[in-house]
Specification:
Mean pLDDT: 88
Helix content: 25-40%
Number of domains: 1
Order of helices and strands: HEEEEEEEEHH
Distance between the termini: 36 Å
Number of helices: 3
Structural class: alpha+beta
Largest sheet: 4 strands, antiparallel
Shape: globular
Low-confidence stretches: 136-143
Length: 143
């Protein structure tokens, strides 16, 4: 998967994409690896290339979100204040991910406000899909 094919970055300008590629690295993570824990400082935004990550939210209840489709984003806390992980992420298989430094990404996006708006709207969509979707299931699907 190329970075330009990641839904988060689809349709952004080529110069911005090039700058993001320069701060992006590919990483392989073993089964059972804890990518981050709730409360940790959120350094990186991750994009799944292959494998499966379990995202766990603990509160009154424990919710699990599978990240198991190529191009899915996790670790979005690296892009929003207070830059603390709100969840725990653990590899459920050997995984390949893109890893992007959140602070560097923020600095790059500031130079491209229209494309930054697209990216942040997509991040908001990821948040909504995970949190609002789980809340809706808990409430019996009611809106």
């Amino acid at each position: 998967m190329l970075l330009k094919d990641v839904p988060l970055f689809k349709g952004i300008g080529p110069q911005l994409l090039t700058e993001i590629e320069e701060i992006c690295s590919e990483d392989t993570l073993p089964f059972g690896h804890i990518v981050f824990r709730k409360g940790d400082f959120a350094d990186f935004l991750y994009i799944l290339i292959e494998g499966e990550i379990d995202i766990t939210i603990r509160g009154l209840d424990r919710f699990h979100f599978p990240v198991d489709r190529e191009g899915q984003v996790f670790g979005w806390s690296a892009m929003v204040e207070p830059r603390r992980n709100r969840t725990r992420a653990e590899c459920q298989s050997r995984c390949s991910v893109y890893k992007i430094d959140g602070e560097s990404l923020k600095n790059i996006l500031e130079k491209y406000p229209l494309d930054a708006l697209k990216v942040m709207e997509r991040v908001a969509g990821v948040i909504a899909d995970r949190y609002i979707g789980k809340f809706s299931l808990r409430m019996g699907g009611a809106e």
